[in-house]
Amino acid sequence: MAPLVAEPQAPPLLVLAGPTASGKTSLALTLAERFSGEIVSCDSVAIYRGMEIGTAKPSLADRARVPHHMVDVVWPDEPFSAGDYSRLAREAILGIAQRGRLPIVAGGTGLYLRALLDGLFPAPEPNQPLRAKLRRRPAAHLHRILTRLDPAAARLIHANDKPKLVRAIEVTLAARQPITRQWQQGRDPLTGFRILRLGLNPPRAELYARIDRRAAAMFDAGLVEETTQLVERYGFECRPLTSLGYAQAVAVLRGEITLDEAVAQSQQGHRNYAKRQLTWFRKDTHLHWLPGFGADPDIQAQAATKLIEQELSS
Q1: By the 8 A CB rule, do 162 and 243 touch?
Q2: Total-model pTM
Q3: Do 189 and 265 meet the contact criterion of CB atoms below 8 Å apart?
Q4: What CA–CA distance (Å, rounded) separates 3 from 307?
Q5: In this structure, are 68 and 106 located in the same domain?
Q6: What are the pLDDT digits (tens) for 136-145?
Q7: I need a labelling partner for 186 at 20 to 30 A (CA). Which of 105, 112, 254, 262 fits?
């Protein structure tokens, strides 16, 4: 099928969202090959180089099939924010559109996707003394603080994600209002594109079974060994190592839990994360939900039909 050709002032942009392990990558690859697209990853861990097994990045073969952007952008010890993601991803999307190809944003990091599409609020300047004080507290304690200050934010930020917890508390206290309320203020939305947003929503039991298999497969593939190499280079306190899978591998290396316990905790953590992702994405009234996995030919056909319908109706 020929590439989608849009009016210069309003090229198309496809967004594929959904929970972890729902098949976003598979669907993105299929649609990119059919509609001459390029994929822009929206994953807050896939941006880091050297973190391969625990991130479920597109394989090198998949990246050879279709150009990918926002994968392997920085090293794990380099700072990277949602604002950085928004800026670089918007540049990538514009470049894809200027080449006459279809930009396909695919991923499950809700905060990054919101920053990309809706823009960011004008956050207060960092309060370094407060930040240093908060960083000395355990992540579980920070999560309890945020739950009191902003229950909605606490539901969206993982209890182990200490940097995001610290920043959410800091911003909430500085502005004297919940960070979730601030997210709605002073945004800079992405304009100039006709955006179609599709969300994958497979049956919950099947999704959880797939999550469990994938989490176990990561450890079988050498996640602890990969984490050992990362710790040797960046240290135990490297921020990306607090992400799911890596955090459990770190606990194994520290002798805090067994390998079997790490697998079980990783599986539970990923299931909880999928639930939070769905809660986040369901608030997006622009999403068209597809009731299945991205690798399902019927779901792929439904997505292609939605894309064609938008193009024909524009």
Answers
A1: no
A2: 0.83
A3: no
A4: 12
A5: yes
A6: 899 889 999 9
A7: 105
